[in-house]
Amino acid sequence: MKEKGSSIINLGRIEHLIVKNNEVKNSGLQNGISVEFTNDALFKGNIIDNVGRSGIQLYRSNGSPKKTDKIVIEGNTVTNWMQRFGKYNFEKSKANHITPDIMSDAGIDSYGPNNQNVYIQNNTLSAGKINQSLPDNLALLKKYGKKSLSK
């Protein structure tokens, strides 16, 4: 999933979606679960670990103001997100002489326009331990030095 694909599970244009009790791990550079243009969705009891970007990403146009079109993300466990894409993005940008973007994906990410009626509750998110560095960040520090990374 370095150059192609956006997620391990990528869903779109679905009414009445249930994504429940899945184990999603090791997505390479991409998201764990991503959804777009979907109404009335439930994400519950999923375990998502070691993903390159976001654990669960609501991309664009999920839910609506209608009461029946809600998006519920409940009782999921998301650990170790943003594990790969930052290093990949940094090095690809450097190779092309472009200032690297700061990557800010999240464990649960609502990105893009028109995500409405979203309920995120009782999830467990863990990005590591206090003062623990991501392996990719350590590799970048070793290769480029602190000064190069702080611009």
Can you describe this structure?
A four-stranded parallel beta sheet has the order 1-4-7-10, with no helix packed on it. It contains three helices and twelve strands; from the N terminus they run E-E-E-E-E-E-E-E-E-H-E-E-E-H-H. The two termini are 28 Å apart. With 151 residues, the chain is α/β, with parallel strands linked by helices.
Jot down its keywords.
17% helix, alpha/beta, 4-stranded parallel beta sheet, 151 residues
Which helices and strands appear, and what pairs or packs with what?
Blueprint: E1 7-12, E2 15-20, E3 23-25, E4 31-36, E5 39-44, E6 47-49, E7 56-58, E8 71-74, E9 77-79, H1 85-95, E10 108-110, E11 118-121, E12 124-126, H2 135-144, H3 146-149
What are the low-pLDDT stretches, counting only 5+ consecutive residues below 50? none
Largest sheet: 4 strands, parallel
Helix/strand class: alpha/beta
- Please tally the β strands and state the result: 12
User: Number of helix segments?
Assistant: 3
Q: Judging from the principal axes of the Cα atoms, what is the shape?
A: elongated
Helix content: 10-25%
Walk across the major sheet and give the strand order: 1-4-7-10
**Secondary-structure element pattern, one letter each:** EEEEEEEEEHEEEHH
What would you report as the Rg, rounded to the nearest angstrom? 16 Å
Calculate the terminal CA-CA distance, rounded to whole Å.
28 Å
| Overall average pLDDT | 88
Indicate the proportion of strand residues: 25-35%
